User: Which sequence fits this backbone?
């Protein structure tokens, strides 16, 4: 009998709690809603000219690291993680991510800041400042492959062997 009298109060408590949480989430989203710029790929000349090529750091200085490749063989989850090493900005425009089977992803206009990171997904999707999409319909990476990152002049800047 007592539980029947408490039931309307429990329902009211649930409704008020849900409304409060939804209001707080809505206010938080409005105050934190930041539009990230969308990157559009730029055509890259097959042979870069000195005007097209940004100044590259010396070859003996590590500038970028291929941290890992996740989701190998699964198109929806396959992603290469890159992390900026060293100081300052690094322009990745025209750099290429390659495998041993002649697959190559060419980076659009992109500047990676100090300690910055970018993810390169194999699948199609909308590019942003932290996520790039290759736009392929089949996975590229598999165990035993080596991922290579080449600058616009074809110099090997980083590699990662997929376990």
Assistant:
């Amino acid at each position: 009998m007592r539980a029947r009298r408490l039931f309307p109060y429990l329902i009211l408590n649930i409704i008020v709690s849900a409304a409060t949480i939804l209001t707080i989430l809505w206010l938080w989203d409005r105050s934190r809603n930041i539009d990230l710029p969308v990157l559009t790929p730029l055509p890259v000349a097959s042979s870069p000219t000195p005007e097209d090529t940004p100044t590259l750091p010396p070859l003996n200085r590590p500038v970028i690291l291929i941290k890992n490749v996740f989701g190998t063989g699964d198109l929806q989850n396959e992603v290469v993680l890159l992390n900026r090493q060293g100081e300052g900005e690094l322009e990745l425009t025209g750099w290429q991510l390659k495998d041993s089977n002649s697959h190559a992803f060419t980076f659009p206009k992109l500047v990676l800041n100090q300690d910055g990171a970018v993810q390169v997904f194999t699948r199609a999707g909308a590019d942003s400042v932290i996520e790039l999409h290759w736009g392929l319909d089949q996975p590229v990476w598999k165990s035993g492959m080596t991922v290579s990152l080449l600058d616009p002049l074809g110099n090997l800047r980083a590699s990662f062997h997929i376990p």
